[in-house]
Amino acid sequence: MLICRAFITLKDGTRLYAKQVGKKAFCWEVTEEEYKAYLEKQKKNKKK
């Protein structure tokens, strides 16, 4: 599964936008298991 975002957050907490480096989006490959774990984490955090 391919995930694409307009920005990424760096380790120091700043956001790096794709337009700053001449791209439309940052894309990376994730497995179905990683994606499901991410969704579960988001759902858990939303309840709090």
Structure notes:
The protein is α+β, with helices and mostly antiparallel strands. The protein has one domain (2-47). The chain has one helix at residues 32-47; strands at residues 2-5, 7-9, 15-17, 26-29. The protein has a two-stranded antiparallel sheet. Strands 2-3 form a two-stranded antiparallel ribbon.
Domain count: the total is: 1
Q: Mind summarizing the main beta sheet?
A: 2 strands, antiparallel
Shape: flat
Distance between the termini: 28 Å
Structural class: alpha+beta
Q: In which range does the helix fraction lie?
A: 25-40%
Order of strands in the sheet with most strands: 1-4
- List the uncertain runs: none
Radius of gyration: 13 Å
Summarize the structure.
The chain has 48 residues and is of the alpha+beta class.
Question: Any descriptors?
Answer:
alpha+beta; two-stranded antiparallel ribbon
Q: What is this structure's SSE topology?
A:
Elements: E1 2-5, E2 7-9, E3 15-17, E4 26-29, H1 32-47
Antiparallel strand pairs: 1-4, 2-3
